[in-house]
Predict the 3D structure of the following.
Amino acid sequence: MRTYSTRTKRLLLGLCWLCGVVFWGSGISVRADTGGANAQGSSVEADALLRQMQEIACLQLITPLHLTDAQLTKIEAILEATIKNYDQQMKAVATKYFADLIPKIEAAHREALLGKQPPSDLQQKFEDALGAVLKERDQINEKNIAAVANSVRPLLTDDQIRTAVKLAHTIPEFKTRTGTDAQWFNLWVASALLNYDHIVPLLKELQKAQATASTTNSTSDKK
């Protein structure tokens, strides 16, 4: 499960940017903008389309529960606190493993500009640090998924919980898995609520859409 993967990747890319160098062999890459304003505009459009596709996938897991405005507000508060705490934890973890590497990478970058080779062990040290960060990230994720699931479950009705479990079974990469209803519910929480960076704004947008639809339906009924 790639929970919070985008946020972690952005954090690590930020560290690479701080160092002024990108290690292509690490699996983290940055696409160079070689087309000026037009290419940049195309990139923005592509990012917007990708974001909308991600949101459609999230909404397919959320809207069948028919969450009320009050439920959405409480879930948003839970997620805001969780995400804030997560970002603080991941910043501390990344700093722990990359702080000593930053000056070494900066020095290697300056040397590379002069045509010199970086220290032979620098790439391995970077990959080791990255691996350590991702390992701790996974541990933090497991705790957060359980905590959010325990906080969200009491807010839902039995029918909504059953719907969430049923929806979790439809997630392609987990269709052949087996588990308890509690595990499937945790998977729904991770996939629907924790796997998308902009989930809180999306839930607020959902609230507005539901309110508008409710007002429209109410007006139509009076005619």
